[in-house]
Design brief:
The complex is a heterodimer of chains A (525) and B (149).
Chain A lengths: L2 H19 L5 E4 L10 E6 L2 E13 L4 E10 L4 E10 L2 E8 L3 E8 L4 E8 L4 E8 L2 H8 L15 E4 L3 E10 L2 E10 L5 E4 L7 E9 L3 E9 L8 E8 L5 E6 L1 E2 L2 E3 L3 E4 L6 E9 L11 E7 L5 E8 L21 E9 L5 E12 L1 H12 L7 E16 L5 E7 L4 E6 L7 H10 L5 E6 L6 E10 L4 E11 L2 E8 L6 E6 L4 E8 L4 E8 L2
Antiparallel strand pairs in A: 1-35, 2-3, 3-4, 4-5, 6-7, 7-8, 8-9, 10-11, 11-12, 12-13, 14-15, 15-16, 16-17, 18-19, 19-21, 20-21, 21-22, 22-23, 24-25, 25-26, 26-27, 26-28, 29-30, 30-31, 31-32, 33-34, 34-35
Chain B lengths: L1 H7 L11 H21 L3 H14 L4 H19 L16 H12 L2 H19 L3 H13 L4
Helix pairs in contact in B: 2-3, 3-4, 4-6, 4-7, 6-7
The chains are: A mainly beta (525), B mainly alpha (149).
Chain lengths: 525, 149
């Protein structure tokens, strides 16, 4: 055997040995995924750290009436832990899902039976509880038009929210006679227990937004008006007792002659009190027409009592860091919707927001003009559209004094408004943008013991070097803010970025033709 | 693998098709070939781990020392370009526990820490390996990554 031949043999042998033993596992592919949406997959988060992931998807069509579904559970390093399959009627539509630190909930809509089915699973994949709710005519129409599994969307949950370790809360809009109201339902994950809360307001048009919860209270902002066409909106913060579903308090969100529109709550570390945050307006101002005067921050207790308040003015405070116009509106940004509010272990408070504004819609105007010329009453589009603008990050100290404010520029996104939305106030429009997934904000992931965080958003870039979607991260570590970017160019039908273990993100790609999900974890710099 | 070998092993059953010296030579070459294959196929975490394992036995081996530096330099580049998942395995309970420790260590490193690790590792080998062109190349790359002129 000559030396050269021996060397070739050795290399071939080594290659074979390596191929068989050292297959890489940093990327995971899941096959036979007939349909998947962002709403039905997500991180499993415990104590604010990502411990794993769940993926719920339609895995097969059994026959004309039956589908096969799979619930896949992975650990934080993408190792498969559980793979649960079950068959169910094709008429069952999966609407939303969530995880509360102990259980997963999947919210199904059964068109045949006209009911909502909340199925709770533990992390072993065992179904722990199932709650059904027959829909009355008040909310039937709402669920018939709700997006479901397979719809091409990128929005988050609109109806179901996790209550850490306790259960899940659902807020469902209902129509009662001529008035529009809402219903809050609670589904326990600890034992079989459920309650429903119905507001006792007559003749009002009310909509509710879930803000968050602490150990005993769920906080909901209720926006109500007397007439459907009325422009005046009344904002109320309602606390609902999580143990019995009774109203714990109801507080008009006015203080010192200022009107607050709560957007977020955040528990105060080491206290049962909490922070409520949102834009504030001069009381006599009409929120529909005027820009907010700044950011209001309240500390409240479980009885709904305002213990303290602080107001950060766009004009007086934020303008020191940013360009602001004479009226206090952030230059070129418009209104600001705050996606999240949280406190890090060094006592700093961060608010991550995104700008939006109402602008004229060329498409809406053109279709309306054409429709009127043709003898109609206008098309389904509005003459105004929404434009989603830049990211805003505010940093406050533990006394709620503004320490820094930064704008992260991105490409404006336009969202056409349905007809009839011209007179809706900016706060409600922000909720519409959020539910429809029109904001670019992705998520905020806290580091170990709240010592750091990563906030992410997507942006479409059109530069010399790169054209396509990009994921941008804003990281806070060791008292410093840094930025990073991952280009998201892909051949996949859909791509999304999910939170991951500290310092990383998970890139999820769905290849519709190949019926495959590819997952890969990348570190941020 | 070792379990499989044990099941076939019998006391006094050593039979070499070639003489013992050649066999051990081949065995050592085979170890290097595996590292080389892992590096060429961009399985960098495995190449790094195997190089570190062999360095315990041959601490002054120039190939192994340079390969550790080259692996770290490539890991730095992949992490910078957000392609780390393509060259570094994620921790898995099915991996060898020692290999898993290396993977957890790599997962916890920040970009600048990878650059620092490569530079300081190669720096201490500089007196012995300066004459080697591969070493020079790897060391210069690590300096560049660590922002040292």
């Amino acid at each position: 055997m000559n030396t050269q031949f021996k060397s070739v043999c050795l290399s071939l042998l080594a290659s074979f040995f390596c191929c068989s033993l050292f297959a890489q596992s940093s990327k995971l592919s899941i096959d036979n995924v007939q349909n998947v949406t962002l709403r039905n997959s997500g991180p499993i988060v415990e104590n604010e750290e990502v411990k794993g992931y769940y993926f719920f998807y339609q895995s097969d069509k059994v026959d004309k009436k039956t589908n096969e579904y799979t619930l896949q559970i992975l650990d934080a390093n993408l190792n498969k832990l559980k793979d649960i399959k079950f068959q169910d009627s094709k008429k069952i539509a999966l609407l939303e899902s969530s995880y509360n630190g102990r259980s997963l909930v999947f919210m199904f809509y059964d068109d045949d039976q006209n009911m909502i089915d909340y199925r709770l699973y533990d992390l072993e994949g065992k179904k722990s509880f199932s709650y059904t709710k027959t829909l009355d005519k008040r909310s039937e129409q709402y669920f018939k038009s709700a997006p479901r599994l397979g719809d091409d969307e990128g929005s988050g949950n609109a109806n179901i929210y996790d209550i850490a370790g306790k259960g899940f809360l659902s807020i469902v809009p209902v129509k009662e006679g001529k008035s529009f109201t809402f219903e809050v339902g609670f589904y326990s994950s600890e034992r079989r227990r459920t309650w429903t809360y119905n507001p006792l307001e007559d003749g009002k048009f009310a909509q509710a937004q879930y803000l968050g919860s602490n150990d005993s209270i769920a906080f909901i902002e209720v926006l109500s008006k007397v007439k459907h066409t009325s422009r005046e909106m009344e904002s109320t913060l309602v606390g609902i007792n999580l143990f019995n579903g009774r109203k714990a308090f109801e507080t008009r969100t006015q203080d010192k002659g200022l009107q607050l529109y709560p957007m977020n709550i955040s528990p105060i570390v080491g206290s049962s009190n909490y922070i409520v945050m949102g834009p504030y307006f001069e009381s006599e101002d009409r929120v529909l027409q005027d820009k907010s005067d700044g950011l209001g921050i309240w500390t409240m207790d479980n009885k709904g009592k305002v213990l303290g308040s602080k107001y950060v003015s766009w004009e007086k405070d934020v303008s020191k860091f940013l360009k602001t116009d004479f009226k206090g509106k952030l230059a070129d940004i418009g209104f600001v919707y705050f996606h999240t509010l949280f406190q890090t272990d060094d006592g700093k408070i961060f608010a991550i927001g995104e700008g939006y504004k109402k602008t004229a819609s060329a498409l809406g105007i053109a279709t309306t003009v054409l429709s009127v010329m043709a003898g109609g009453r206008g098309a389904g589009l509005n003459v105004a559209k929404m434009t989603v603008t830049d990211m805003v990050v505010l940093q406050l100290n533990s006394n709620y004094t503004l320490e820094n404010a930064t704008i992260h520029e991105k490409r404006n996104n336009n969202v056409e408004l349905p007809s009839g939305y011209s007179f809706v106030n900016p706060h409600t429009l922000a909720l519409l943008l959020k539910v429809s997934g029109s904001f670019d904000y992705s998520f905020t992931q806290m580091g170990k013991n709240k010592g750091s965080f990563i906030s992410g958003y997507t942006d479409f870039e059109k530069g010399k070097d790169y054209k396509g979607m990009a994921f941008h991260s804003i990281s806070y570590y060791d008292g410093k803010m840094t930025k990073d970017k991952i280009n998201l160019s892909t051949k996949a039908s859909r791509m999304t970025v999910l939170p991951a273990k500290p310092g990383s993100v998970l890139l999820m790609e769905y290849f519709k033709r190949e019926k495959r999900i590819d997952l890969r974890m990348e570190k941020l710099n | 693998m070792s379990g499989k070998v044990k099941s076939y092993y019998k006391e006094g059953s050593k039979k070499f098709l070639v003489d013992t010296t050649t066999f051990y030579d081949l065995k050592v070459q085979f170890d290097y070939a595996v590292i080389d294959h892992c590096f060429q196929t961009k399985n960098l975490s495995r190449a790094l781990y195997l190089s570190l394992q062999m360095l315990r036995q041959y601490p002054d081996d120039s190939y192994l020392n340079i390969k550790v530096g080259e692996c770290l330099n490539e890991i730095y580049l992949s992490q910078k370009n957000h392609q780390l998942s393509k060259v570094v395995d994620l921790p898995d309970p099915d991996h060898d526990p020692k290999y898993n420790t290396v993977l957890i260590f790599l997962q916890n490193l920040r970009l600048q820490e990878v650059a620092a690790l490569s530079y300081h590792f190669l720096k201490q080998k500089e007196p012995a390996l300066l004459h080697d062109p591969s070493f020079k190349q790897a060391f210069n790359k690590s300096k560049q990554n660590f922002n040292i002129q």
